[in-house]
């Protein structure tokens, strides 16, 4: 079942395809899953507030082609004052294909680049609130994707580009979204069983303490184990990709606390559905709730419906 392709999401893909800028790599887990990655590493300031709260984690994708990532930092729990969102995700950078070198390359459109280059004003303020900031990587219709690396060397080379970006911009991790690759374009190969596992394995070696998350969708969702290794032993989180629905990602190795079966589109999912998904998340003992498409519009009333269920508190909006 295909997730709804809302206008803003399509804008993000289209703008990236039209104005991609190659990123040059000269720039420079609970106790592997028991130690919560949200509570370690990635500090950008001597003074960092806490986002830790009972009731699980809230994760939010922001379409930075049209909205500010800083909007995620404007919502706090009325009781306790913690940030509503634990993880803010920059949506999205791309995996592109260089037809000359026949290699996958990381690409940032001008809007993504603007967030990264201006990290002092766009990213650090969120990290100083205790939030984690990830960069989502998305296919770009060019045939390059996470599932068609044909050698560990090729997978490791792309993992190095991702790791270098995280290091250079002091990000907290990488999110994989296996959409829009259009495997086969430009003479590229179709998905294989080893590629995604090799890629995440190599990235984990380079980023032992950073967050790796997986938007549970696309060819990668059915290629999660190979050679005795599982994505669930390498990644930190995975969440449902179908907005307005409740579906547990089938990622062996990840505990309930690191899985998000509930996913909502803030602009399209009804309050009653969002509340119902929160109730199911809480009653079934899962630890992640996924939000998509946050804009500048004050949504604290909408968020409060879910927050009262998950965290026992309404939400306060601070412009």
Description:
It comes from Chitinophaga hostae. 25% of the residues lie in helices and 23% in strands. It has 8 helices and 16 strands. The strands form 3 sheets. Strands 1, 2, 4, 5, 6, 7, 8, 11, 12, 13, 14 and 15 form a 12-stranded mixed β-sheet that branches. Strands 3-16 form a two-stranded antiparallel ribbon. The protein has a two-stranded antiparallel sheet with strand order 9-10. The chain is globular. The relative contact order is 0.16.
- Number of separate helices: 8
**In angstroms, what separates the terminal alpha carbons?**
37 Å
- H/E series: HEEEEEHHHEHEHEEEEEEEHEHE
The radius of gyration over CA amounts to: 18 Å
* Estimated helix fraction: 25-40%
What sort of overall outline do the alpha carbons produce when their principal axes are compared?
A: globular
Q: Tell me, rounded to a whole number, the average pLDDT.
A: 89
Query: Pairing-aware structural class of the strands and helices?
Result: alpha/beta
Report the sheet with the most strands, covering strand number, pairing sense and barrel closure.
12 strands, mixed
**What is the β-strand count?**
16
Strand content: 15-25%
Low-confidence stretches: 1-36, 39-47
Describe how the helices and strands are arranged.
Elements: H1 7-18, E1 21-22, E2 57-63, E3 75-77, E4 87-98, E5 103-108, H2 110-117, H3 119-122, H4 124-127, E6 132-139, H5 152-168, E7 173-177, H6 195-206, E8 211-216, E9 225-226, E10 229-230, E11 237-240, E12 245-246, E13 259-260, E14 262-265, H7 271-283, E15 288-292, H8 300-310, E16 315-317
Parallel strand pairs: 2-4, 2-15, 4-6, 6-7, 7-8, 8-11, 11-13, 14-15
Antiparallel strand pairs: 1-5, 3-16, 4-5, 9-10, 12-14
